[in-house]
């Protein structure tokens, strides 16, 4: 048999076949790598979507649990406020009741250093057996030491039975709506009464805040040495109202105003001249949501002096020491006790004028926290969701919901067609005397505003 010489046709064909095989293998390798990459991307997107959904429900669960804590606080407070339980209330250490809502909630639960081995194992077992994926932190803070910027829209003091909106003041009455109005309230709250003068109180409060900050922080004083409370309020009014003069606030420039109430305090960032550091200062003293009043038992020195600048800083410290001293301090039990403490300072010389000024601004002092901000941060995998909500408590409504009046008694709600009741005392199922389980009961927690990010 004769051997073929190199370079013949048969040998060339074998080289082409080898090249085609190698090319096919390389092409398959590229396709497999691309397919593997696409599968990994799709898998990651699916897991991220799942984690995002888990984080969504986790943040809502934490929000619901925060509401449960507030309801527990209301029920315990209603119990201790009962004259029959005065001894129990007096036996509670100061501030114990507020810890029901004020302590931050974390998950997974941290194991305290002083916990025994058995307690630590119990916490670990609970975390292991729970159905929660991820982590969350939930905090509840009081809002009743802040002034409502939307009070600038109010021209008259609301009457006790008059309507109230989201632009109601600190100290306003009535149940606020879930969302703020989309247009400025015409002429104020719509209620008749004495003229409301909120602007001077706001200017005084912001001016004192800025001056105190300048005295305490040299760097802040150097940067914001030309900033005045009047200029800040004028800039805010330019954002809210038509035909307002241009503010002298450093950094301010003409822009298209909103011409509507604030929905969120973060809108202050939209106003030129209000820098981040100035915003942080204002955030501690201002809100845009309804509050029941200024809580005299949680107000700090800076806020107290901003509202009552007639007193000196040492006098303000003395007033708060009488409230907070761990040995002899006692929370103010009524507004009269608070004003008695103020009367002992240099502000006592003009106590009537101070009361009139604050009353004309629809600002009153309360003893218990009723307005809260709920902040929740949830993390699952690479997904993060954040929720902020503002609520107002109505202890009377919670008490009425827990103890509904008997049928036929005053206060019993009339039959509702939407809940399945018929005029003849029968529901839609034809069974007499049975209330629809879906009927909404008052919880005492009024949700004013919330957002999920």
**Percent in strands:** 5-15%
Segments where pLDDT lies below 50 for 5+ residues?
A: 161-193, 410-438
Helix-strand category: alpha/beta
Summarize the biggest pleated sheet.
5 strands, antiparallel
Rounded Rg: 32 Å
Strand order of the largest sheet: 1-2-7-8-9
Number of helices: 13
Query: Considering DSSP H and I runs of 4 or more, what fraction of the residues is helical?
Result: 40-55%
| Ends distance | 84 Å
Q: What's this model, at a glance?
A:
The chain is 41% helix and 11% strand. By secondary structure, it is of the alpha/beta class.
Provide key terms for this protein:
alpha/beta, 9 strands, single chain, two-stranded parallel ribbon, 453 residues, 11% strand, five-stranded antiparallel beta sheet
Give a structural overview:
With 453 residues, this protein is of the alpha/beta class. The chain has 13 helices and nine strands. It has helices at 9-81, 86-91, 99-102, 117-129, 199-216, 218-223, 229-240, 276-283, 301-307, 313-324, 335-343, 351-360, 395-402, and strands at residues 105-107, 135-142, 147-148, 286-287, 294-295, 365-366, 371-380, 383-393, 445-452. A five-stranded antiparallel sheet has the order 1-2-7-8-9, covered by helices on one side. A hairpin with a 2-residue loop joins strand 7 (371-380) and strand 8 (383-393). Helix 5 crosses helix 9. The radius of gyration is 32 Å and the shape is extended. Residues 161-193 and 410-438 have low confidence and may be disordered.
